Amino acid sequence: MTGAGGGPLVRRRLLLTGDATARPDGLERALTRAGFQIGETAPASHEPPPDAILTTLRAADPDRLPHVLADAAVEPPRIVVFAAEDRDAPGLALALGAADALAAPVHLPDLCARIAARILDRQAPVRTPYETRVRESLRDLVEEARTLLLPEEVAVALVRRLGRALDLAHCSYVQVRPDENQGRVIADSCDARAEHARLDLARHPEIGDAIRSRRTLSMPDTHTAAAVMAVLPVVVEDEVAGVLLLRGQAAAPPLAASQLALAADLAVAAARALDSGGAAGARPGHHLAPLPLDRRLEEELERARRYSLGFSLVLLDADGAATPATDAAETAGRGRLETVARLRRVLRLPDFVSGYGDDAYAIVLPETGSDGARRSVLRLRGPLPGASAGIVAYPHSAVTVPDDLFALVEAALHRGRAQSGERIGLAE
Hints:
Layout: E1 12-18, H1 27-33, E2 36-39, E3 52-57, H2 65-68, E4 78-82, H3 89-95, E5 100-103, H4 108-123, H5 129-143, H6 151-165, E6 168-176, E7 182-188, E8 198-200, H7 205-213, E9 217-220, E10 228-236, E11 239-248, H8 257-276, H9 291-307, E12 311-317, H10 332-346, E13 352-356, E14 360-366, H11 370-380, E15 388-394, H12 402-417, E16 424-426
Parallel strand pairs: 1-2, 1-3, 3-4, 4-5, 15-16
Antiparallel strand pairs: 6-7, 6-11, 7-8, 9-10, 10-11, 12-14, 12-15, 13-14
Helix pairs in contact: 5-6, 5-8, 6-8
């Protein structure tokens, strides 16, 4: 068997696990025809791991599923297929770390394409639909600099999400100024104590070389010879405004040019936010929704209609909720920003969170029904205890445009406020 270039075709190795009786009819035949090498026994320790793991389950058992996906973040990408028709099951599996998840009825060619895409996610993230969502999620963070985030917090959020998106061991942003021999660490993905530290550029010649050449430099990392460090200059208006330091995982291959381009693109946007100081302002209107939220809902509506998917919009009301204490010098904006950051740490990477009015937060949960959204609200009560919530799940017969979603979720929030107990209202 040969590939397009005439060489041997490398068959991707797929491990089948879970309940064999839950497999869709014709699954093995479809996978083999799609070019996968199928196995049902985990490889020995000296053998290479599979390229992906396909787990079939009868249903989304909330007691069993966390154990099934306990190592999903560190093992090859795991795709979960549920034999039962359950709209919320895929969202629950994704929240627990699955790379992809589907519920019956399953279209086998679509499943094969998804498995191949998830393998590419791990091998070359910039070439997959998943990475497009990562890029959009990161860009939304930068856009929030104009509506909610303090300028330096844009860089903090950026390096942490970028570290997750590219599977980095470490990511930091160093701001530099022309004709200055010191840089300032604005954001560090691993150590918040390093932020605001000063760097003597004379002691870091690799940074000086990247600034002078305006080219990305790659070199062995001084922390471990098995990792590679990339030093990426951030050029804004023909001047180097900062340097992005990216360290890969031990023994991982160097970052691809496309991945470095993603990092550079987003770092430039963050640098502009730092230079501008971040202009605040939400779109006027009855719901005071920031523009990034409007855009995200439009995208989710289009995607849901095109691919027959669902999603949920959640509105959390923090008015009267217990929030972390702040000292007298801390502004209300910073306290609000810290709440957004805590919510993001609980959510999945594809999820979106944004400030909404004075005391509320809007959250978009892709491929999640009302039950999954309710479970998400209960998890979010950790960073925001006591908050009331409203949920609207799409498809919904009354929704044709994003403003319909806002009207429904605000009404649901009103019902949630009036309740005792969970204080979660659902759109009617």
